[in-house]
Amino acid sequence: MRPGDVLPEHVVESVSAAAMAGLAVVLRDPNPIHLDRTAVRALGLGDREINQGPANGSYIVTMLRAAFPAGRLRALELRLLGNVRVEDRVIAGGTVLAVDDDGTRLCEVWLDVDGGARAIAGTARVDVGVGVRG
User: Fold this and answer.
1) For helices 17-26 and 53-67, angle between their N-to-C axes, nearest 10 degrees
2) Helix, strand and coil percent figures for the chain, each rounded to 5
3) C-alpha distances in angstroms, 125 versus 7, 10, 11, 48, 73?
4) Model-level pTM?
5) CA angle 95, 99, 123 (to 5 degrees)
6) Cα 23 from Cα 50, distance rounded (Å)
7) Beta-strand pair 6-12/72-80
8) pLDDT digit string (tens) for the chain, length 134 residues
9) What sign has the CA pseudo-torsion 44, 89, 12, 113?
10) In the chain, what is the straight-line distance between the N-terminal and C-terminal CA atoms, in Å?
11) What is the CATH number of domain 6-15+50-127?
12) What angle is formed at CA 84 by the lines to CA 93 and CA 8, rounded to 5 degrees?
């Protein structure tokens, strides 16, 4: 891939409450905003559970792995800009910004809530090696 090329999107059709609950256990994150709609409402954060930030970032990593199957993720810098909620449809995407002499691609990456706001923006460096397509 060359500068200006758009990376294939990764779409999550519906963020799962069950997956959020399971991840809360793995992360040891009992924050009720991930588990309980009543708590979300009481805090004035809307009416649906809020997905964990690491889960949202993983959608971007999945998109990068599909775009560069033989690549190695060297760096990932993400800014959390908004919330992703249970049942949201989210779209991870990116664009190649530059290609270094060693084959490393610098990419702009993002995660958007379909019909909503951008939830994450950032950059990724993916080493695909000199002469490797991708």
Assistant:
1) 100
2) 25, 35, 40
3) 13, 18, 21, 34, 6
4) 0.91
5) 45
6) 12
7) unpaired
8) 899 999 999 999 999 999 999 988 998 988 999 999 999 999 999 999 999 999 999 999 999 999 999 999 999 999 999 999 999 999 999 999 999 988 899 999 999 999 999 999 999 999 987 554 45
9) negative
10) 5
11) 3.10.129.10
12) 15
Do 23 and 54 touch, CB atoms closer than 8 A? yes
Write out the two tokens for 28.
Answer: 């040891």
The amino acid present at 100, given as its one-letter code, is: D
Please give the pLDDT value at position 1. 87
Residue that the structure tokens 């199957």 belong to: 69
Structure tokens at 108: 């702009």
What is the side-by-side order of every strand in the sheet holding 104-113?
6-12, 90-99, 104-113, 118-127, 72-80
Q: 93: number of CA atoms within 13 Å, CB side?
A: 12
Domain range summary for the chain, segments of one domain joined by +:
6-15+50-127
